[in-house]
Queue: 2 jobs
Job 1
Amino acid sequence: MTDVTPLIPAGRQVVDSYGRKGFHVSGVAYEGAIVVTADATVAWRVTSLADVTVESLSLLFDRDIEILLLGCGARLMPVPGELRVALRQKGIVVDAMDTGAACRTYNVLLAEERRVAAALLPAG
């Protein structure tokens, strides 16, 4: 796994590493896709970008999130326009990137105390 740990305040959910099958977040191993916020990491029941829907991301709607980083796996994939619009209507800007970039960017934005979440598919 690739280490992506910046200096983060204690008590935050930081992505320690990622790999082909899952993630380590704040010292805990997760297999498969996950959604990470500053205070929680949960298993995410999607297996590909095609499974990503407004409903699959609804767990974020009651949180104060302004940026959603969508880790698409090994390579960047475009976010469907209707998903982008639906999230924007909820006040969330989505930014898609490969999973490694999403993990690193999430950690940086978390360190800056931004209102960020990451929805991450394994890297490959």
Job 2
Amino acid sequence: MTKGLGGDFCLICGSESLLYADRMCEPCTRARTRIAEVPENTNFTRCARCGLIDMHGRWVDVPEDKLWDELIQRNVAFHEHAQEIGLACQSQTVSDRHTLLHLQVEGVIDNLLYQDEFTMRARMSNGVCLTCTRRAGNYFEATVQLRSTGRRLEEDELNTLRASLDHVIENLSDDPMFFITSEGPVTGGYDVVLGSKGLARSWGRHLTDNWGGQVGETNTTVGRKDGADVTRLTLLYRKPGYDLGDVVRWRGDYWRPSSWSKDGAIMERIARQERTGATWRDLDKVLVIAQMKNHLTVDVLNKDDSVAEFLNPETWKMNSVRLPWDYDGAPTLRLAHVEGEFLALHDMALDHTN
């Protein structure tokens, strides 16, 4: 900024007042300077089926306020010399497809404060995202088959296993291929058809980590594209016929699976302190005697060194049971009903978790 001394004057109006950029006075400078350039209209695309917004070629779920911020950043051009820029936005819905964005902008250019108001119309057009396009065409890459070893899966088991898929999808990256094409019960289990092989394998790992069992994969070639084979994956998950904490008969005695391992389960003998690993092949003939959900927790009313008495909640009569090998004087016992008699179970960590 220079002062009009010794003949300096505004090149536009001739004023000898303070001169600013390009040797113009303040009124002439303001008349020719805009703090921002804002287009009258801007467009965005929303999927007509699921409502996702096309952002830089990716379909994402964006709240309205963030959508308006994105449109402003994409379309509003601030003066190259502007500093200390401030911006406020108020949206006004005109119709389902049109929203007016009222902007208040201020900033400093060459030590002059500029304030201005603008209105930009956001116009929505319908489109169809990649996921919905493929869903509509029943596109799929993998089928996951949920089964159990030696028995049918119960309804509550199926509900739990199926719910775990939603958990896996929520915790994976936002991939448009992570969708469910179809699903439903079949003879002996449940089938889920997925749009991604990666999602199928991630779910398979989650199933074995949490419920044990084995996963088998089969790939089928269905054609060729761009010189490469197009394959579809069938992933068969077999859940063990027993759960952690159940009482099972194995090797002629009663045991409880305590945790899953990579190739099988860790087994704990009920009669004495013994812990061993077993492969799925070893456990092939395991017979479930008492499921954990059917165990009883009873109060110890009387006891001696080897036997405790309790009130049978089924008959309201006093019964006695042999104390477990690790009994430490606790006021309660966990019991399983085995072949018409009660069997006291040793304490395991999973007995205290939901």
